[in-house]
Amino acid sequence: MTRDAPTALIISWVWVWVWVAISLLHHAQGVRVSRVSLPQPALVGEPASLRCHFSTPNGTFFSVRWYKDERQFYSFVPDRTPVKQAHYLPGLFVEVPESDEHVVQLRRVEVDNEGVYSCEVIGGKPFFKSSSSTANLSVACELRMRMKQLIRITNIGKRVV
Questions:
Q1: Known Gene3D superfamilies for this protein (predicted)?
Q2: Which of 40, 58, 37, 57 is nearest to 133 (CA)?
Q3: Superfamily in which the 27-151 domain is placed by CATH
């Protein structure tokens, strides 16, 4: 017994929709960044670890990107060479060898490092869904260090004998 063309077309469309629904359910959760952990407060002159807590289906993702005040300063892309890359942002010193997809290691904290930090994770094929989280970094410095900075600033242009 053969099916007529409209019935075959309907059955084909049903299978397409079933496949789409299963694919969407499989990838519905996608990547999820649960939080960003930053030292509070970070100390001037000290190293700092910035941590991105995320989960991905099957442990795969396209990229992890870090931003300070909406400017990208670090990326981790497994399918790219080099996998880890620091992007220039004045006053932000990333220790690339010690950084990975979850942690960005700053060599030393500067006062200007205070700001809003975001971690964005972009999922893999075929949907490339993204998720992000942000946190504020506060920077503190010891009074002794601040006094040295002030003395240095006030001595600029003075002749030292």
A1: Immunoglobulins
A2: 37
A3: Immunoglobulins (2.60.40.10)
